[in-house]
Amino acid sequence: MRLLPIQLIAILASLGLVAAACAPAAGGGVTGKLSVYSALNESTNNAFVDAFKKSYPSVQVDVLPLAAAGELQTRITTEKASPKADIFIGGSAEFHDPLGKQGLLEAYKSPNATDVDPKFKDADGFWTGWYIGIFGLAINKDEAKAMDYMNKLHANIGQYVGTSPQGIELVGQGQFLMGPNWGHDILTAASKGQPIEFKAPSDTANEVGAISIVKGGPNTTAAKAFVDWVLTKEAGQLNVSLSNRLSVRKDVPPAAGAPTLDSVKLVAYDRDWATQNKDRLIKLWQQSVGL
User: Fold this and answer.
1) Which has the closest alpha carbon to 11: 79, 78, 84, 69?
2) How far apart are CA 192 and CA 132, in angstroms?
3) Among 42, 92, 95, 32, CA closest to 65
4) Greatest CA span in the chain, whole angstroms?
5) What is the pLDDT of residues 74-114, one digit of tens each?
6) Distance CA 132, CA 96 (A)
7) What does the buried/exposed string (b/e) look like for 136-155 if buried means 16 or more CB atoms within 10 Å of the residue's CB?
8) Residue 286 pLDDT more than 70?
9) Which tens digit of pLDDT belongs to each residue from 33-42?
10) Paired strand residues for 106
11) φ, ψ for residue 182 (rounded to 5)?
12) List of domains in the chain
């Protein structure tokens, strides 16, 4: 039996070698404009672009920052006849995988992904996980009971926000007592003075934050270079320091105080099933609570 509720809430809340494999100095001849669709926050976007350009100074990076990965997934789908993006970065793999299955992503197996655990990357190379996030809420596993629970929970919901950071901000302001969210984002907000803390219940879930290349994008060569760079130790360490996310790289330690996969009890989460049923579950939830 699959544990549907934690999959559903995680979906709603979502609305990283050897030296020879590192990026070559001076950009390796990679040039042009790179268009990045990003579900990361502004500070991470800026730091990543600045660090990437030190390795690839001849590449101009344009970022479309939308914290809701679902909106970026929809945008890439809408633009499929004439792709505008080269890279889709951030958001759980559940938002990247359908694009790969629809033929909208470029298969690419970065040499820097060789040592990434197979469960953190697509077997066909359509997306690669580069960070891990741990979620903070779990409920009953039966679908009928799950919807019953969601109906009851709905009565206690003060506001459904568009992105995870918005929810954290409202809790930090004291407008609401609590809200389900990603542990790394909660810890990051707390480190900046927000009066909040992270609690991981038993049978919680985790995301595999992914990066993928949009098929037919303007600059696939630069896109591959960007994927290679994101999967380096340097980028992994930068991401951990900026966001408290876990890296998929074994040589990048977690941030101090950050929850790790072996420090929490995870639900038996079927990521492929959740991806295939994401739209159905969201529609069922909307119908159930009357949205």
Assistant:
1) 69
2) 21
3) 42
4) 58
5) 999 999 999 999 999 999 999 999 999 999 999 999 999 99
6) 15
7) bbbbebebeebbebbeeeee
8) yes
9) 999 999 998 8
10) 213
11) -85, 135
12) 16-135+206-254 (3.40.190.10)
- Tell me the pLDDT of the chain averaged across its residues: 85
Return the ∠ at Cα 66 (arms to 6 and 217), rounded to 5°: 110
For the stretch 136-189, pLDDT in tens is: 642 334 667 767 877 887 887 888 887 777 888 888 888 877 778 888 888 888
**Tens digits of per-residue pLDDT, 1-29?**
444 455 555 555 554 332 323 333 446 68
Q: Which residue has 């470029």 as its token pair?
A: 106
Say which residue the tokens 């039966």 belong to. 142
Decide: 193 and 112 in contact? Cβ < 8 Å.
no
Burial class from Cβ neighbours inside 10 Å (0-12, 13-18, 19+) for residue 256 reads exposed
Global pTM reads 0.77
Contact 132, 252 (CB under 8 A): no
CA–CA distance, 89 with 73 (Å, rounded to integer): 11
